[in-house]
Amino acid sequence: MLKIIVLIKQVPDIERVRFDVETGRIDRSSAPAEINPFDLNALEAAVQIKEKVGGFITALSMGPMQALSSLRDAMARGADDAILLEDRRFAGADTLATSNTLAAAIRKIGPYDIILCGEKTVDGDTGQVGAEVAQLLEIPHVYYVSRIVNVSGNSITVVSETEDASYVLETGFPVLVSVTRDVNKPRLPTLKSKMKAMKSEVKIWHAEDLSGFLDLDKAGYAGSPTWVHKVVVQREKTRQVRIYRQVEDGIQELMRLLESKGLI
Fold first, then answer.
1. What are the structural domain ranges in the chain?
2. Counting Cβ atoms within 10 Å, is residue 64 exposed (0-12), middle (13-18) or buried (19+)?
3. How confident is residue 143, by pLDDT bands cut at 50, 70 and 90?
């Protein structure tokens, strides 16, 4: 039975969230929270592997207490266990500090075969955490996986898509696999699985629970070598319309505009 860990992040619904132009920050209270869409593909991939060769899936997330809802959603979708890393000392983390904390938790979880994650998160779009976690754990990783060809008890074969080509790659365990949205179509949880997940326990680990696995100087804001100086939200430009009642006037104005742009 394979031991699979899926990295989950709770993000705001990016289609509905508002941005504070003055502060350059996301107003996370303006939209409901959900599992990062790419992570849903990673979770579905884990469930499909479990259905094929057997396995135990642990969903792992770092965030505030409200992230419990996303972890319960992950359990409703097929995760067997869920762990939330919650502590004020984890707050303000950049991708490296986040990866340090996640890697420490994975070490505590113990032996594993596959770590699955989404290609990126819709609220950060860096695509760095998966590779950084693999580097910290000193295991191989495969990115931009669009198809899982085969999984056995000791190896996985995948298709990795890059700008230049598609590669068929095979690797043994342990390994981290980062998937794209093309890898599958996540199934919706059933009402029965949702009800069961509501009653299931989600483990909550604080900084003290990672003692011996995590150097707190490398976690949270204190352990972040990078920070956001400023976020600029591009204002949406609306179409400018001019109405001419005489066709000749409109044509003359259009010609002047094209000439001013150097187009004619």
1. 2-223
2. middle
3. very high
Strand partners, 151: 156
Domain 2-223 fold: Rossmann fold (3.40.50)
| Encoded tokens for 181 | 């949205």
CA-wise closest residue to 206 among 219, 187, 193: 219
Q: Which residues of 139-165 are buried (b: 16+ CB within 10 A; e: fewer)?
A: bebbbbbbbbeebeeeebebbbbeeee
Q: Quick: pLDDT tens for 111-127.
A: 999 999 999 887 777 88
Could you tell me what percent of the chain has a pLDDT over 90?
Answer: 65
**Could you tell me which residues come within 8 angstroms of residue 50 by beta carbon, excluding any fewer than 6 positions away?**
2, 4, 56, 57, 78
CA–CA gap between residue 184 and residue 169 (Å, rounded): 18
- Of the candidates 82, 113, 120, the one whose C-alpha atom is nearest the C-alpha of residue 98 is 120
220-244 tens-digit pLDDT: 998 899 877 776 666 667 777 888 8
Instruction: Residue 8: name the closest of 67, 51, 55 by CA.
Output: 67
- Burial of 78 from C-beta contacts in 10 A (0-12 / 13-18 / 19+): buried
Residue at token pair 């319960």: 72
Three-state SS at 38: helix
DSSP state of 142: E
